[in-house]
């Protein structure tokens, strides 16, 4: 399957799906190898520390604190890493409904983490976005 770069096609085909687990963003010290047993969904090394995206239950079990609980919504379309505008379209649509969006692009798909209490509304907003005629 070829990755899609055309914005209108990406939006029309994104088919957002809410994932079942609850996630948290945490910051820890040390190396990623120190945390592999927690099976992080994602990690990013920043100057201030290592950020991990973990299932909430795993963070709780490990005694790692966090500030909020998030739901993951995956755009199931195979988006190209060189596509322009999908992240902006997702973020803008959610912002219009006062929903924060933490977007992570992976090789095949884009994923947005929204506050758990806004997950159903966010999913509806993204589904509506994919049904709207594209201005592109």
TrEMBL record:
Gene3D superfamilies: VC0802-like. Residues 72-127 form the CASTOR ACT domain. Residues 3-70 form the DUF2241 domain. It holds the Pfam family ACT_7. PANTHER family: BLR5128 PROTEIN. This is ACT domain-containing protein. It comes from Thalassotalea mangrovi.
């Amino acid at each position: 399957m070829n990755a899609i770069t055309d914005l209108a096609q990406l939006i029309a085909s994104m088919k957002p799906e809410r994932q079942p687990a609850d996630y948290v963003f945490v910051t820890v010290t040390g190396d990623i190898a120190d945390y592999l047993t927690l099976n992080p969904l994602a990690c990013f090394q920043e100057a201030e520390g290592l950020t991990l995206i973990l299932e909430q239950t795993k963070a709780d079990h490990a005694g790692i604190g966090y500030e909020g609980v998030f739901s993951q919504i995956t755009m199931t379309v195979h988006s190209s890493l060189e596509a322009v505008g999908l992240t902006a379209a997702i973020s803008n649509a959610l912002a219009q409904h006062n929903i924060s969006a933490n977007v992570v692009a992976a090789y095949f798909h884009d994923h947005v983490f929204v506050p758990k209490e806004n997950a159903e509304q966010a999913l509806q907003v993204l589904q509506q976005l994919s049904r709207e005629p594209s201005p592109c």
